[in-house]
Amino acid sequence: MSLSSPHLPDPAALLDADTAHSSVYNDPDLFEMEMDRIFMHTWVWVAHRSQLPEPGNFITTYVGKHPVIVSRDRKGAVHVMLNRCRHRAATVCEQAKGKTNSFVCPYHGWSYSLDGALRGVPHQDGYDGLLDKAGLPLVALRVEEYNGLIFATFDETIEPLADFLGGARKWIDLFMKQGGGWPVKTMGEHKFSFPGNWKIQLENTTDAYHFPIVHRSFLESVDEQTEDMLNFLGGEGYVEDLGNGHSVMVMIPELVDLDANLDEPIPERFTELAEELSRDYPPEQVRKIVRAVGGSGFNLNLFPNLACSMAFFRVLRPVAVEETEIRHIAIGMDGGPVCANEARLRLHEHFQGPMGFGSPDDAEAWERVQKGARGGEDVRILLNRGIGHEKKREDGNLYSDVSAETGMRAAYRMWLHMMTQGDAA
């Protein structure tokens, strides 16, 4: 399929201010346009700094549909490179993560250094001096980092990462206070796929409306104090459009800044943890650690593929028009108390772990959206919740109540901008 084909879908005809056409979930041509116009031309999250603690560390992941390697070289610089040998295109690394001195293609043995430079070519004399190794490194992507979050892009012309994140940077800084005074680190992950379009997941982490319905079984599994805290619909929370498709959904306003209100009583569910921490830490630090263990009171959604979701990272990867891979990455305190990190892991397992309450319930809902959207082709998807009382802050950001679909509308505005910005040329 050529992207210049006159038969391509018209994104502008599929979206208006408060509805979307069902084909945004199931049109294969539209999906291919998204992979080209969005994922090839924006900043895509690829790793957290703690996943590459030492020279030689690497992980493998994807930018859109492209396999990439994220590595830290001997001088400490981070590189993101296409996972494709320059000879015959074989991937040069199949491990999810590890530590190495080089990447070697298993097909003909071409080897690359941690920064992607081509170092070795077996039997090079067969090229009769026509092979320029210096001109054949692994294809490099542009890389930038903000507060431990590492992003990459294929597009050398787009704005710096800090400008792209814009108003979301403040919220990233708040989210990273979950280190409790230590740096945040990743503590393992699991992944799964669901038979649905990637935008269904993009919408979900800015959707508080579903929480008491889909996650009723989870709410029945927690203590009364926690259930009251999570009964946030109708509360003082809000959803705010942060620009560039990013948004924040504040569910528990008193847990936005984990360093504030340290004099508040410690929740009953953390009493034993506080007692254990008190053996090694002064009271004020115990309160700070305990608040960090409980996680932030908001979901930060970074267009197009990362959610800093209360206490973990949720990463989406579009696999096909009706298949999306989700990774849930647990985070903790790098150098912090073992008991505190164990408590964070138990909380993560309870809701978003492989056997937790959250993932299966969410995945069932997402699958049903995809299935239902195949019927009633001309029936529009509603995105209008909260639009009637949406307001604008002094900085121009739109916001509405916590159950509003303001975050979805923000993401779709960016989606439409990126899908159409070249059409007028």
TrEMBL record:
Top-level division of the source organism's lineage: Bacteria
Cofactor(s) annotated in UniProt: Fe cation
Occurrences of domain Rieske (ranges): 43-152
Gene3D superfamilies: Naphthalene 1,2-dioxygenase Alpha Subunit, Chain A, domain 1 (3.90.380.10), Rieske [2Fe-2S] iron-sulphur domain (2.102.10.10)
Key words, A-Z: 2Fe-2S, Dioxygenase, Iron, Iron-sulfur, Metal-binding, Oxidoreductase
Matches recorded under SUPFAM superfamilies: Bet v1-like, ISP domain
Entry's Gene Ontology molecular function annotations: 2 iron, 2 sulfur cluster binding; dioxygenase activity; iron ion binding
Family annotation (PANTHER family): CHOLINE MONOOXYGENASE, CHLOROPLASTIC
Designated name of the protein: Aromatic ring-hydroxylating dioxygenase subunit alpha
